[in-house]
Every structure is written in C-alpha cells, then in structure tokens.
Amino acid sequence: QVQLVESGGGLVQAGGSLRLSCAASGRAFSTYVMGWFRQAPGKEREFVASINPNGRTWVYADSVRGRFTISRDNAKNTEYLQMSGLKPEDTAVYYCAAGYGHISTREDEFEYWGQGTQVTVSS
Q1: CA-to-CA distance for 120 and 40, rounded, in angstroms?
Q2: Rounded to an integer, what distance in angstroms lies between the CA atom of residue 119 and that of residue 94?
Q3: Coil/strand/helix, residue 82
Q4: Which of 9, 29, 45, 99 is the residue whose CA sits 20 to 30 A from 109?
Q5: Is it the case that residue 57 has pLDDT exceeding 90?
Q6: Strand-strand pairing, 68-73 and 46-51
Q7: What is the mean pLDDT of the chain?
Q8: Which residues, 6 or more positions from 108, have their beta carbon under 8 angstroms from its beta carbon?
Q9: Which pLDDT value is given to residue 59?
C-alpha cells in the first residue's frame, strides 16, 4: 500500500502559478503510475495528468496541456504538478492518485488517493 499527502494548494490570481506536491509513504513508489485529478464544486472529478513509473511518459487533459507539467522524483517519493497560466476554471480540489500497470486517464485504474488540496484562482 501507499499513503499519499498533497500540499501546495492555495489562492492565486488568474495568470499565476502554483506547484502541487504529493508525498508518498509506503513501499515501491517507483513502481506506481501516478496521476492528478481535480473536482470543482458541483462537478464530477476529472482527469488532469498522469505519469508512468520512470517519469518518461505522461499524458494531459486537453484543458491543461501546455499550462501544467507533471513530474516525479522517485528518490524523494514525490510527485509534482507545476501549474502556470492559471484560470478561474482551474479552481478545484486537486487529488493525487497512484495505481498499477500502464499510464492511464481513468479514475478507476488508480487504487490509492490522497485527501486533496484546494486550488482557488481568482479573476
């Protein structure tokens, strides 16, 4: 099993930047596919980005491609989401997730989830 704790959320003006971190405890972080999802008020949780275990392959939602960058440091058991060019519609609770197997955009293919961190973008 792995436990996930997100940090780095906050309030930022439109056009600003934030970096989210997801610290993992437990075993074999480097074997997990990692991902970020988000849930805005009144909406379903949606995929943001995912990265494969060695950090060399990633996939993004169309809505964030070119503005967000996912990365990981397996030596530190940490995943990151660098967000720039933030928009009010990026306001949501952001969750990190870990799973087995191949890189994925599907929520049901991630077994472990953090508690989430709030990102609020003001206009």
Answers
A1: 10
A2: 7
A3: strand
A4: 9
A5: yes
A6: unpaired
A7: 96
A8: none
A9: 98
